C-alpha cells in the first residue's frame, strides 16, 4: 500500500464494514480493503459510554472521511457527521462543521535532528553575540 496513490479525499462519503471494535473506536474496512477508524467521539452526537451499544462487528456503515494522514495512510472516519444533530444549535441556524483542517504536502520534507557537532559552532557564536549585547 505504501507508494500507492490513495483515491480518497476528505469529505467523501464511503461505505464499509466494521471489522473490529476497541474501547477507543471501531475499525472499518472500506470497499478496496483500505482500513479506517471511527473514533468513539465520531460515533454519534453526545457522549458515548460504550461503543458496543452503537456498533457491531460485520455491521455495514456509511461514513464520511474527515481526515487522511498521507504519510501513515491512516483514514479517520465519522458517523456523527452524517446523522442529524439533536442540538439546539440547529434551531438557531448555526452549522457545525465536521471537517478538520489538514495540512499536507506531496513530498517528505527533510527535517529532524542534526548532529550536535554540525551546530556547535553556530550556537557558540550566537551565545557570544547575546553576551556582548
TrEMBL record:
<dbReference type="Pfam" id="PF00575">
    <property type="entry name" value="S1"/>
</dbReference>
<feature type="domain" description="S1 motif">
    <location>
        <begin position="11"/>
        <end position="80"/>
    </location>
</feature>
<protein>
    <submittedName>
        <fullName>Polyribonucleotide nucleotidyltransferase</fullName>
    </submittedName>
</protein>
<dbReference type="GO" id="GO:0003729">
    <property type="term" value="F:mRNA binding"/>
</dbReference>
<dbReference type="InterPro" id="IPR003029">
    <property type="entry name" value="S1_domain"/>
</dbReference>
<dbReference type="GO" id="GO:0006412">
    <property type="term" value="P:translation"/>
</dbReference>
<dbReference type="InterPro" id="IPR050437">
    <property type="entry name" value="Ribos_protein_bS1-like"/>
</dbReference>
<keyword id="KW-0808">Transferase</keyword>
<dbReference type="InterPro" id="IPR012340">
    <property type="entry name" value="NA-bd_OB-fold"/>
</dbReference>
<dbReference type="GO" id="GO:0016740">
    <property type="term" value="F:transferase activity"/>
</dbReference>
<dbReference type="GO" id="GO:0005737">
    <property type="term" value="C:cytoplasm"/>
</dbReference>
<dbReference type="GO" id="GO:0003735">
    <property type="term" value="F:structural constituent of ribosome"/>
</dbReference>
Amino acid at each position: 500500500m505504501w507508494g500507492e496513490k490513495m483515491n480518497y479525499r476528505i469529505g467523501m462519503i464511503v461505505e464499509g464494514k466494521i471489522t473490529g471494535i476497541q474501547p477507543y473506536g471501531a475499525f472499518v474496512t472500506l470497499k478496496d480493503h483500505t482500513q479506517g477508524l471511527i473514533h468513539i467521539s465520531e460515533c454519534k452526537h453526545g457522549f458515548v459510554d460504550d461503543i458496543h451499544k452503537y456498533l457491531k462487528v460485520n455491521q455495514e456503515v456509511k461514513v464520511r472521511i474527515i481526515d487522511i494522514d498521507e504519510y501513515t495512510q491512516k483514514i479517520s472516519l465519522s458517523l456523527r457527521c452524517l446523522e442529524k444533530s439533536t442540538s439546539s444549535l440547529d434551531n438557531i441556524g448555526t452549522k457545525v462543521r465536521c471537517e478538520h483542517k489538514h495540512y499536507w504536502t506531496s513530498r517528505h520534507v527533510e527535517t529532524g535532528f542534526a548532529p550536535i557537532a554540525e551546530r556547535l559552532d553556530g550556537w557558540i557564536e550566537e551565545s557570544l553575540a547575546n553576551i556582548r549585547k
